[in-house]
Amino acid sequence: MSVKPPRCADKFLTWYCRADLLEEIQGDAYELFKRTHQENQSKAKRQFVWNVFRFFRLKNIKRSKSNYSNNAISMLKSYFISGFRNISRNVTYATINIAGLAIAIACCISIFLLIDSFYNLDAFHKNGARIYLLMSKVKIGDETENWARTPYLLGPALKDENASVESMVRIQKMGDLSIRYETHVFNETLWGVDSTFFDVFSYPILQGSSNPLSNKNNIVISSEKAIQYFGEGNALGKELSVKFSDNKIQTFIVSAVADNMIDKSSMRFTFLIPISNYEDQKGKNNIDWAAWARSTFVLLKDQHHPSDFANSLTSYQKLQNEANPRFELRDVEWIPLQEVSARSYDIVDCLSWDLHPVTLIVVSIIVLFLLLLACFNYMNVAIASVSLRLKEIGIRKVIGGSKRQVILQYMTENFMLCSLAIVSGTGIAYFFMVPAFNSLYPINVPFAFSSLNTMILFFGGTLLFTTLLSGAYPSFYVSSFNSLSILKGKEKFGGKSLLSKTMLGLQFVISFTTIIFSLLSVSNRDYFKKKDWGYQQQDVAYIPIHGKEQFFALRDLVSQQKNVVAYAGSESHIGGDDELTNVQSPEKDIQVNRFPIGFNYIETMGIHLKEGRLFNAATESDKQTSVLVNEAFVKKMGWSDPLDRQVTFNGGTYFIIGVVYNFYFKDFDKILEPALLNIVSEDRYNFFVVKSTVGTLDQITGLIQKSWPSIAPDDAYLGHSQQEVFRSFYHDTESDSKIMYFISLIALALACMGLFGLISYNLSRRMKEFSIRKIFGAGIPHIFRLMSQEYMIIVLAAFMIGSAIGYYLMAQLHEAVYPDKMPLPQWPLVLTISMMVISVLLTVASQVYRVVKENPVDTLRSE
């Protein structure tokens, strides 16, 4: 019995191999197969299959005998010429298709640039692949939080005791410091960093030495700040006076100007000073394992990995937990530098730009919906427009055009339209959308891709996606027509098919889903604007101060003003600053936000008492051992009778004298956390709070600002209205609502453009029918009803489906992002269906005008 090689592989070889080479290649493969088969049957079969694929090369593949390949270039050229002619003959409808796709593609480009830049932040660092952020997993009550903070001595210990570490740098954020240059005083945030900062990171030094932080009195400034302080001149050697929180003034010399790479970096510094200055402020005796660094970055040597430290980190954790048992360090995770920005939303006190991934997912889905909507518009218009090209299709088929050639012709034309749309969309994104996006948010998305390959993949993928999605079905649909039926006028086509109606309905479903979801996002803005903050934020201002002398000076100033209702001082301020504190009770330990305040602070802020009493200056115990807590504190403790309960924090024992209603001190998308308020003395005040009569706050703050140089000549005035504490949140919400308004208008415009093209083509198809109806006495209302009823049914059905999807998606978004259950109003439903119905009726009415104007005799004569 003869041994035969695998049949499928042999057939594949026969199919692709050139006839003049087949005998030689097949013979060699057979001979090798038989020779190997005597030793090992399985090996022989595998080797034969491998040889078949090994010979599958361009020079061995048989060529087509047809002349198609020789005429391919000429044929494609004719297709392009035909495409340009068809576009020029149907400018209106080509413009509808191009404009719809261009707007959707512009949205895609803008969002893709945001995502691309976000996920490629910090990629410019030379040693980025070896840099890691140490993230602490800290036990807070019953929960474990991810902290950017790490034990202050952990970084140096890793560097000194582990050969795998090349370098490390700690960053200590020192905010709200006054910097004086000559007679000008500014409030700035400084970073205290190790001298290895520029060894670990690759921020370019524009002026100065390569080791600018070697001297304790050196300061490095960003290029933007150099221009702000010194203009375009040389900044090196200039002196800046910095006033620290203990009122000590220290002079620094500018040793370097650095580019903080604001477009490419997730961390944005403005001033850098040696971290030894922070240690001086903290006190050398307080620099131990109980202290925390704001962030610690470690640069590993080549060929080393964080797993090298699996055992050694345990000993460091033990040192920290013994020194600071209030914050139990459970674990330390090594976060690669290029992943820090993507995970920053889940890391407490992270220095990187915070952007929740849900935001990116939502906007990506929305722009994808817009692109799908534009493609479906194209499909509907293309299918409905077949009537204008039936004779062309029939003649092409009669003279020998194959189905494949008709498909290729239509796909070529579609490719041209999509290419024009991409070019137009790129221009719209560059000149309008990206600048508008940058103006709405405190970020700067550059109009640049992270790499050439990324740009090619994006534009190539977008072109391929839009070309195939929008043109594949119309091309196959057109190519399926029978040539004789076309020339005899018997071919049926257009908007009466079930598939056409289904596609139109799907288009409206996408439109309704996008519009309703966008309008519901806008309703979030209105909800937050009306939200109760838990206190009276109107007519209240706060001014950061340094020490009791400034407090007394402000007190003496405002106490003489008749429009001042109340004033107070505090160490921390609601919405401005608070202190995380570990509070113990007999039942459990929890982490709370503590507000050390002065007497009359509760009354000045208008915080509402739920039960118990407020602080009383005449009661001595209130100065030492009394505290107020909020509802979230009581709920976290699991108490039903909180009054007179005993709690312990910072080594002291306190008693709860009252419970206040919950009040917001963080953004509204954050969970309401436990809060505790206690009295501190005037020498610890960092804020002065004043409440005025209605409408007079600007007058009071103007007086304070005018008097500020005499009160605090070395400090910048930083007073704000209490209504501004959530300014960033409200600004982002307002920006979100503007974008959503814009998206809803785009979705509506895309739907209307597609509907206009579709109705216009269908009117051309039915013009003979309407002319006959006019001759037999049909009125304009009757014709209007005939044209609009099929679309109204589709719109109403799509509205029911799209609105349900839109509400469901928004409910899921609320659950994922917002801690409080938010109402979903009904007005987006009314507004959306009203806009869409009006748009449909106006579109139909604009086309009915053509019927009214057209003479039925002329129409029938041409037919």
Descriptive report:
The protein is an alpha+beta fold. Helices cover 51% and strands 17% of the residues. It contains 26 helices and 24 strands. The strands form four sheets. Strands 16, 17, 18, 19, 20, 21 and 22 form a seven-stranded mixed β-sheet that branches. A hairpin with a 5-residue loop joins strand 8 (239-243) and strand 9. The longest helix has 49 residues, at 727-775. It is globular and about 105 Å long. The protein starts with 6 loop residues before the first helix and ends with a helix.
Key descriptive features of the protein:
863 residues, globular, alpha+beta, 6-stranded mixed barrel, 7-stranded mixed beta sheet, 26 helices
In short:
Helices cover 51% and strands 17% of the residues. With 863 residues, the chain is of the alpha+beta class. Strands 16, 17, 18, 19, 20, 21 and 22 form a 7-stranded mixed beta sheet that branches. It has a 6-stranded mixed β-barrel with strand order 4-5-10-7-9-8. The protein has a 4-stranded antiparallel beta sheet with strand order 15-23-14-24.
User: End-to-end distance, in Å?
Assistant: 75 Å
Helix content: 40-55%
Which overall shape is indicated by the principal axes computed on the Cα atoms? Answer: globular
Low-confidence stretches: none
Radius of gyration computed on alpha carbons:
36 Å
Topology:
Blueprint: H1 7-16, H2 19-37, H3 41-54, H4 72-89, H5 91-118, E1 131-140, E2 143-147, E3 150-151, H6 154-161, E4 165-181, E5 184-193, H7 197-200, E6 205-208, E7 218-222, H8 223-230, E8 239-243, E9 249-258, E10 271-274, H9 276-282, E11 292-293, E12 295-300, H10 312-323, E13 328-336, H11 337-343, H12 357-384, H13 390-398, H14 403-440, H15 452-479, H16 483-488, H17 498-529, E14 540-544, H18 548-558, E15 564-570, E16 579-584, E17 589-597, H19 601-605, E18 609-612, H20 620-624, E19 626-630, H21 631-637, E20 646-649, E21 652-660, E22 675-679, E23 687-692, H22 697-711, E24 720-721, H23 727-775, H24 780-817, H25 827-853, H26 856-862
Parallel strand pairs: 5-10, 7-9, 17-22, 19-21
Antiparallel strand pairs: 1-2, 1-12, 1-13, 3-11, 4-5, 4-8, 4-12, 6-9, 7-10, 8-9, 14-23, 14-24, 15-23, 16-17, 18-21, 19-22, 20-21
Helix pairs in contact: 1-3, 2-3, 4-14, 5-12, 5-14, 5-23, 12-15, 12-17, 12-23, 14-15, 17-23, 17-24, 17-25, 23-25, 23-26, 24-25
